[in-house]
Specification:
Belongs to the short-chain dehydrogenases/reductases (SDR) family. This protein is an alpha/beta fold. The chain has 8 helices and 7 strands, in the order βαβαβαβαβαβαααβ. It has a 7-stranded parallel β-sheet, sandwiched between helices. Strand 5, helix 5 and strand 6 form a beta-alpha-beta unit. Helix 3 runs parallel beside helix 4. The longest helix is centred in the middle third of the chain and has 28 residues. The structure holds nicotinamide-adenine-dinucleotide (NAD). Nicotinamide-adenine-dinucleotide (NAD) binds next to helix 1 and helix 6.
């Protein structure tokens, strides 16, 4: 019960990493307020997950909806102790010599500005509680080309620097800010960015999961709970001396496999 008496706001919790995090934080005693663009799934989760779970529709590309989510969470539960800025999608897949300015702006709004505005509008509530923890989802794409499209990867690299500067600025209020960099995790994100149906999604995840497992020292596909556990650690008191940094949770993908070439 690491989060007994705490309120955690989690974005993008209708699916994948966010969903696993909602379930883990609830098991650990938190009241969870989840914001997601997928209203139907959020409402379905309200009836499945019980009184400690609240949902508010939130499109994280819209600052006003992010502010409304934070204010709703604080009003309904008495305050905010933890923010997990996790919502995201694959974004435009065009290369740098093809991408439009509008697509670039959308990727930055969805993957980078959303994190900044999440921190911006949660921070006053965390300050009122005398401190807390913020966790942002970045990616291995922030470190190395070849793992994601350019706009996505650039935004995720921005999340890492935003994490450091926000950590430096908010430490005086006892607010810690860290990032997680997942490697390949079997969720909906790849299939959704390719417009795949459910069966195609299963096949895509199976093929990509096997390819990732072959390329990692930890030879199995990553699963959403791998990242939820990392988020829970960074949000917990066990990480009380950890701020302004990132945790790679990639099965060793970035260190590579000995003898692979
Ligand atoms: P997912 O598609 O399973 O979940 C993403 C969630 O974000 C969904 O619930 C979706 O409805 C929500 N969402 C999308 N656009 C939104 C918007 N505008 N406003 C609010 N909610 C929105 O994908 P996932 O893999 O669980 O992704 C979670 C995070 O992890 C993302 O930030 C993603 O970039 C990051 N990530 C994933 C992987 C991976 O391999 N799956 C790797 C690195 C980073």
């Amino acid at each position: 019960m690491r989060f007994k008496g705490k309120t955690a706001v989690i974005t993008g919790g209708s699916s994948g990493i966010g969903r696993a995090s909602v379930e883990l934080f609830l098991r650990e005693g938190a009241t969870v307020v989840m914001g997601d663009i997928d209203e139907a799934e959020g409402i379905a989760m309200m009836s499945a997950l019980g009184d400690a779970f609240l949902f508010q529709k939130c499109d994280v590309t819209q600052e006003s909806e992010i502010k409304a989510l934070m204010d709703y969470a604080a009003e309904k539960t008495g305050g905010i102790d933890i923010l997990f800025n996790n919502a995201g999608a694959g974004g435009p897949r065009d290369a740098i010599d093809e991408i439009s300015g509008d697509d670039w702006d959308f990727a930055m709004a969805l993957l980078l500005k959303s994190v900044a505005m999440g921190i911006r509008h949660a921070a006053p509530h965390l300050k009122q509680r005398g401190g807390g923890a913020i966790v942002n989802t970045a990616s291995i794409c922030a470190f190395q080309a070849g793992y994601g499209p350019i706009a996505y990867s650039t935004a995720k690299a921005g999340v890492l620097h935003l994490t450091k500067v926000a950590a430096a600025e908010l430490a005086q209020y006892k607010i810690r800010v860290n990032a997680i960099c997942p490697g390949f995790i079997q969720t909906n994100i790849f299939a959704a960015s390719l417009g795949a149906n459910k069966e195609e999604a299963r096949q895509i995840n199976s093929v990509l999961g096997q390819a990732a497992a072959n390329a990692q020292p930890v030879a199995r596909p990553g699963v959403p709970s791998d990242i939820a556990e990392a988020a829970a650690y960074l949000a917990s008191e066990a990480a009380g001396f950890v701020t302004g940094t990132h945790l790679l949770v990639d099965g060793g993908m970035l260190v590579g496999t000995p003898g692979s070439w």
